[in-house]
Amino acid sequence: MSEILSTPGPGARDESEIGRYLRWLESRRQLSFPDYDSLWQWSVADLDGFWSSIWEFFDVRPHTPPTAALGRRAMPDTEWFPGATLNYAEHALGRDEDLDSVAVLARSQTRAPIELTFGELRDQVARARAGLLRLGVRKGDRVTAYLPNIPETLVAFLATAGIGAVWAACAPEFGPRSVVDRFAQLEPKVLLTVSGYRYGERDVDRRAEVAEIASRLPTVERVVHVPYGPNALAGSTSWTELLAEPAEPAFEPVPFDHPLFVLFSSGTTGIPKAIVHRHGGILLEHLKNNALSWDLKPGDRMLWFSTTAWMLWNTLVSALLVRASIVMIDGNPVHPDLREQWRIAEETGTTLMGVSPGYLMACRKAGIRPAEEFDLSRLRQLGAAGSPLAADGFRWVAGQFGEQVLLNVGCGGTDVCTGILQGGPLQTVRAGEISGPCLGVAAYAYDSAGERVVGELGELVITEPMPSMPVGFWGDTDGSRYRAAYFEEYPGVWRHGDWVRFAPEGHCTVAGRSDATLNRGGVRLGTAEFYAVVEDLPGIEDSLVVHIEDPEGGNGELLLFVAGPAELDDALRTGIARALRSALSPRHVPDVIERVPAVPRNRTGKKLEVPVKRILLGAAPESVTGADVLADPASLAPFVAYAAGRATGAGSAS
C-alpha cells in the first residue's frame, strides 16, 4: 500500500470550485456524484454532457452558438462545438465588474515591480490591438515574440488573439538558431522583442541576436521594441508608438478551431514541431483545469515561474479566465538565493504557487523551512510539474505545510497544453504518486499490444478526445506528421510518450519518457524509479542514466552519470551499486558509473536522456538538440567527449 499523506478534509467539497461545480451539476443537470472518481468516470464516458457542462458552468459567451458539443468523436479528426464563434481574449479580459480588481503583479530583476488592474490591462490590450492593426496585422497573420515573462508580453498576446492573428513566443535567452528554427516555420509578419535583460547580477545584451533573427525572417515587416533595460534598438517601432492611440476593446469572432497560438516541442530531435492550439479548446480546457484542479477563483493569485516558451506560461495567463491574478516573474528564479520564490509568494499573497520538483528538492536539501520563514498564510495549493517528484519531496512538503496546503503534482505537456494527470481538492495525496487522471482525460496505460494494463508500466495513452488536443502541426497540410506523432502506435488512441503505472484505485506514477525506458533482460524500468534511488544517496545531487541496447538481444550496457560534490571513488561506486541492487534488481546495477559536472536539462527542467543516448551512439550533438534548448549550454560537452573516448577506447566524461 502506498503512503497516504492527506485526504480531502470535511470542508473540501463546500469550499472548493470543484465542489461548486458538483452542486451546479446536481441542481442544473440532476447529476449527483459522491466522489472525484465517479465524476471522472462520467467525464470521460459522456463527452457531450461533460464538455457542454463546462461551457455552461463557466458561462462561455459565444458570438455564434454551437449546434452541438461534439460533432465528430473519432480521433484524430474530432470536431468540437461546430458552428461556434468566440474569442479567447474576450473571456480573459473580464467584464465590467472586474475592472478595478488586480490582474497582474510583475516582479523582475530588470526593473521595478508593476501592477495592473483588469481595467488597465484591457486598455493596454485595446491600444496594442489598434497598433498591430496599423502595422497591417490581420486575422490569420502570425505575430512572434522574443520576449520575457513581463506584462507587455501578456498585452501583446491578448491583442494578437483579439485580432484573430496567431501568436508564438520564444524566451530571449534562446539563441538565433533556435528562434529561427521555430519562427521561420510560421512566416511571421511582426516580431516583438526586447534588446536585453538582467539575469541576477548580470546584464545581458541581445541586440546582436535580435538583428540576426530579424535578418533571417524575411517575412517580418516590422520589429517592435519593448523597452527593457538600457539598450535602444535602432530601426524598430517602439512599444510607446504601438500603444499611442486610445481604442475601444474589440474582439474578432473566430471559429472554435481557429489557431490561437503555436507551441513548439523542445527540439531535442530535429527541428521543433510547431503545435497549433485553438481558441475554443484552450478556453474550455484552461477554465476546467484552473478552476476545478487548481481551485482558482476571483481574488486568488497564481505564481508559477515560467519562461514564455513553456506551455505553463500559457496556462498561467489563463488564470485571468477565472478572474484570478497572475504573478509574473522574470530573471534568475534563485537569485539572490533559493528563498526568492518563497519571498515573492509572501509579498504577493500567492494562493497557488507552482514550482519544479527540482526546486522543492533543492529547498529540502538546503534546510529551508518556508512555512516558518515566510508568511504564506494565503497559500492553499502547491503545484509541481516538469519532472517526477520523489516520495521524499512529497513528505517534505507535508512536513512543512501540514494540511494547510494541498500538494498537486501533475504530468501534462506542450502537446495538449494542460495537465493529463494531477490532483485537486477532492483527491488523496500519496507519497511519490500523482493522484489520478484529470477530468475529461481518459488516461490509461497500454502494453505493446494495445491492451490496458494496471499495476505495471505501460505507455501513457488517452483513449477519448480532448478539446485542447492540437489542431495539428503548422505546415503539415495532410496531417501525416501529426498522425505519426501521436496515433501511429495505437490507431485512434493518443500515445503521449510517457511511461506510467496505474494502481487499481487510479493513482499513478510517471516513470519518465517511454523512449528512454531501461529494458534489461526483458525487465522494463522507468528512469524516474532509477533516479529516486541514486539521488537519495549522500554526495549525489543529480544523475542521468542511459541504456544502450544490445543488437544481439543481450542485456546491453547501462551507463550512469552522476553530478555532485562527492568524489566518485570506489566506495561511492560500491554504494550506488548496492543501493540499486537492493531497491531495484541486480540487473539494474550500472555497467559504467561516470562523474559529470552537470546533467543536461532543457529549460523546463527535463533531463535530456534521449539526446545523450543518441550522442553516445555516435550522433553529432547539433543534430539531436540546439544549444539554446539547454539550461546549461556547456552540459553536453562532457558527453560528447565521453562518446569520442568510447569510440577510441579511452577517456571519461569528467
Automatic annotation (TrEMBL):
<dbReference type="InterPro" id="IPR042099">
    <property type="entry name" value="ANL_N_sf"/>
</dbReference>
<feature type="domain" description="AMP-dependent synthetase/ligase">
    <location>
        <begin position="112"/>
        <end position="465"/>
    </location>
</feature>
<comment type="similarity">
    <text>Belongs to the ATP-dependent AMP-binding enzyme family.</text>
</comment>
<dbReference type="InterPro" id="IPR020845">
    <property type="entry name" value="AMP-binding_CS"/>
</dbReference>
<dbReference type="InterPro" id="IPR005914">
    <property type="entry name" value="Acac_CoA_synth"/>
</dbReference>
<keyword id="KW-0067">ATP-binding</keyword>
<keyword id="KW-0436">Ligase</keyword>
<dbReference type="Pfam" id="PF16177">
    <property type="entry name" value="ACAS_N"/>
</dbReference>
<dbReference type="GO" id="GO:0005524">
    <property type="term" value="F:ATP binding"/>
</dbReference>
<dbReference type="GO" id="GO:0030729">
    <property type="term" value="F:acetoacetate-CoA ligase activity"/>
</dbReference>
<dbReference type="GO" id="GO:0006629">
    <property type="term" value="P:lipid metabolic process"/>
</dbReference>
<feature type="domain" description="Acetyl-coenzyme A synthetase N-terminal">
    <location>
        <begin position="36"/>
        <end position="92"/>
    </location>
</feature>
<dbReference type="InterPro" id="IPR045851">
    <property type="entry name" value="AMP-bd_C_sf"/>
</dbReference>
<protein>
    <submittedName>
        <fullName>Acetoacetyl-CoA synthetase</fullName>
    </submittedName>
</protein>
<keyword id="KW-0547">Nucleotide-binding</keyword>
<dbReference type="InterPro" id="IPR000873">
    <property type="entry name" value="AMP-dep_synth/lig_dom"/>
</dbReference>
<dbReference type="Pfam" id="PF00501">
    <property type="entry name" value="AMP-binding"/>
</dbReference>
<dbReference type="InterPro" id="IPR032387">
    <property type="entry name" value="ACAS_N"/>
</dbReference>
